[in-house]
RNA sequence: GGUCUCGUAGCUCAGCUGGAUAGAGCAACUGCCUUCUAAGCAGUAGGUCUUUGGUUCGAAUCCAAACGGGAUCACCA
């Protein structure tokens, strides 16, 4: 970056000196040179032809000659049409490399003083996590890490949806058919056990609907009138009224689910600084609604329901409180927003929630603004696309949902199988092998889900996503393991590759230079990923870095190099690549192995 | 129907604030392991960047429209 700035500065000077044209250096943009031409940076001269009344080649030629003479970084140049390609001196690349290697906090931005809250995961407590949740969890965790690397003060929170009709469905089915089954007695993980009863409810409920329809009732009506649905609603009312027995069962079943979630979270390596529970926040929302009525930014309809008119924001009227005074989804979000802000006065509050809720978040933000809440401005909906299967949309009702725990286990099995096939498991203790499989499995899965732009809907193909070759997590992990082997060997040989140990290196191979270019880019990449809330930017970078290194690894020998300085440089270069692979993968929540 | 969003190789995806002959991976084909881990490297083949118009020196990228997917517009969450 500073290299680009320096060159831009020189170009600005050149334009002034040669053509008497004043252009600020910040206005001069350089782009990476396409690989079929010599050079590292390219300056496009087309935009200046009119003002200067000269041809693009002519301008490029004149600038190139000036830069070669006056810019200390520029080694040579070539002009192709309106493109001035600049080659940078090898000494300059080496200097940059030494500099970044000595910077212990390389890639970590200065503290920004900004507080950012990141809410993610936010599960319902009536069933286990599925593939869609995995994208959410990986995204949320990764974005939080990326924001930290950008110098922000980050708090990760999980808002658990622990109340509502869906939980009552599981509870009801359990009451009827549970026979006192527990996770201990059945050996079923708590969230799966509760999910089992949710499915049982749904099955029986469907049967009732079919029956009613067979009797001639309209399907929509049957859905509302089915006895089981009425019972579930009754149970919800009892819960809201604090009925002891209902609350007791609710607590018991939720505790099973939490134990299960806890296990899954630990297994997939995500964590939270704080949990919020909707049962603990939904009442607060009603206070905000009351506040809005007093401020006269909300209004009450004849039947008693409360609304906000967001027409001036290009949105509709929105219900905030039902006629019977009970809260709806957005009511509790109004309360939770305030609670969050009181706990952690944020500059920004990120909600990692699927794009089906885009409208909801527009409404939430607009409504809080109407209430005059200053923190409304900081609300940012990190909206991500749904995960599709080759068979189409995931539908829990049709049983096409991919269970998170099962998927992770399948990935681990595949990792084991692949590793054994390749015969790469010699010298591992069983525990180490197990750890490796886990690292590879999650690396493959996380990378697969994070390499795609979050905003885009994506396809999860079970066959491809468990691939360990090509543009995958394990490919990058493998590159790290290779370097680790080199570093072990260097260490055995007593080589310490410090900046001083290769000061005499004069020429660089092309492959070496390409690796340095990648290394130099890293801070910019972290910044961009932060600005865009996009782990995919980091993922693409890690892949490019690993690819550049593997090219180098293939073409250039390290330990057969007779020039000690050159050898030391290559070891240092390798160490730095390993470090940035570890860092960047860490930003994705992916661990890297020492051996594989 | 209104609003929002997406459309790039057979498949899955990159392509930054407009720049050169649009790039990866998978799948197909060809080479490279007595030399630091072949989960690798090098190469061949594969494209009307959905279409049409506009902006300009220049458009996959910006604007408009059309076509085709998806989401949403509940006293559901």
From TrEMBL:
It catalyses: tRNA(Arg) + L-arginine + ATP = L-arginyl-tRNA(Arg) + AMP + diphosphate. A motif ('HIGH' region) lies at residues 123-133. One of its GO terms (molecular function) is arginine-tRNA ligase activity. SUPFAM superfamilies: Anticodon-binding domain of a subclass of class I aminoacyl-tRNA synthetases, Arginyl-tRNA synthetase (ArgRS), N-terminal 'additional' domain, Nucleotidylyl transferase. Keywords: Aminoacyl-tRNA synthetase, ATP-binding, Cytoplasm, Ligase, Nucleotide-binding, Protein biosynthesis. It is an enzyme of class 6 (ligase). Its main location: cytoplasm. Belongs to the class-I aminoacyl-tRNA synthetase family. Monomer. PANTHER family: ARGININE--TRNA LIGASE, CYTOPLASMIC (PTHR11956:SF5), ARGINYL-TRNA SYNTHETASE (PTHR11956). This is Arginine--tRNA ligase. It comes from Pontibacter silvestris. The lineage of its organism: Bacteria, Pseudomonadati, Bacteroidota, Cytophagia, Cytophagales.
């Amino acid at each position: 970056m500073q290299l680009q700035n320096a060159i831009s500065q020189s170009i600005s000077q050149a334009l002034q000196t040669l053509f008497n044209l004043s252009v600020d250096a910040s206005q001069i943009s350089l782009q990476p040179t396409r690989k079929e031409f010599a050079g590292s940076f390219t300056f496009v001269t087309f935009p200046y032809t009119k003002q200067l009344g000269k041809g693009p080649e002519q301008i490029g030629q004149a600038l190139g000659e000036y830069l070669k003479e006056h810019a200390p970084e520029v080694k040579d140049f070539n002009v192709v049409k309106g493109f001035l390609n600049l080659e940078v001196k090898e000494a300059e690349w080496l200097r940059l490399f030494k500099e970044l290697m000595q910077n212990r906090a390389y890639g970590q931005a200065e503290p920004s003083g900004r507080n950012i809250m990141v809410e993610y995961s936010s599960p319902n407590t009536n069933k286990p996590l599925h593939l869609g949740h995995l994208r959410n969890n990986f995204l949320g965790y990764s974005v939080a890490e990326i924001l930290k690397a950008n110098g922000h003060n980050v708090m990760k929170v999980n808002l658990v949806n622990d109340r509502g009709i869906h939980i009552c469905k599981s509870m009801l089915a359990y009451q009827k058919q549970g026979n006192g089954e527990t996770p201990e007695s059945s050996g079923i993980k708590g969230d799966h056990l509760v999910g089992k009863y949710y499915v049982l409810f749904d099955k029986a409920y469907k049967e009732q609907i079919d029956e009613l329809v067979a009797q001639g009732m309209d399907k929509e009506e049957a859905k509302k009138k089915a006895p089981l649905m009425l019972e579930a609603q009754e149970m919800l009312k009892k819960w809201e009224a604090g009925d002891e027995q209902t609350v007791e069962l609710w607590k018991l079943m939720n505790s099973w689910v939490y134990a299960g979630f806890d296990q899954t979270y630990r297994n997939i390596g995500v964590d939270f600084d704080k949990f919020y529970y909707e049962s603990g926040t939904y009442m607060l929302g009603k206070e905000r609604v009351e506040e809005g009525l007093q401020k006269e930014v909300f209004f009450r309809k004849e039947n008693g329901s409360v609304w906000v008119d967001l027409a001036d924001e290009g949105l509709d009227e929105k219900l905030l409180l039902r006629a019977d005074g009970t809260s709806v989804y957005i009511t509790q979000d109004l309360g939770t927003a305030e609670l969050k802000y009181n706990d952690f006065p944020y500059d920004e509050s990120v909600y990692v929630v699927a794009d089906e809720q885009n409208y909801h978040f527009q409404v939430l933000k607009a409504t809080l603004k109407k209430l005059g809440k200053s923190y409304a401005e900081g609300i940012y909906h990190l909206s991500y696309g749904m995960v599709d299967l080759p068979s189409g949309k995931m539908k829990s009702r049709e049983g096409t949902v991919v269970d998170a725990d099962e998927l992770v286990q399948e990935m681990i099995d595949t990792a084991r199988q692949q590793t054994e096939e390749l015969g790469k498991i010699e010298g591992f203790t069983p525990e180490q092998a197990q750890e490796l499989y886990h690292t590879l499995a999650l690396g493959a899965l996380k990378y697969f889900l994070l390499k795609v732009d979050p905003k885009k809907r994506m396809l999860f193909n079970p066959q491809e996503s468990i691939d360990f070759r090509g543009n995958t997590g394990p490919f990058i992990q493998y590159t790290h393991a290779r370097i680790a082997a080199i570093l072990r060997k260097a260490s055995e040989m007593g080589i310490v590759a410090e900046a001083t140990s290769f000061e005499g290196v004069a020429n660089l191979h092309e492959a070496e230079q390409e690796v340095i270019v990648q290394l130099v880019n890293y801070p910019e990449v972290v910044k961009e990923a932060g600005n865009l809330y996009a782990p995919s930017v980091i993922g693409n970078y890690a892949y490019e870095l690993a690819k550049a290194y593997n090219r180098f690894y293939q073409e250039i020998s390290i330990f057969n190099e007779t020039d000690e300085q050159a050898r030391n440089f290559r070891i240092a270069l390798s160490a730095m690549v390993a470090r940035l692979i570890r860092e960047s993968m860490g930003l994705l929540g992916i661990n890297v192995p020492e051996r594989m």
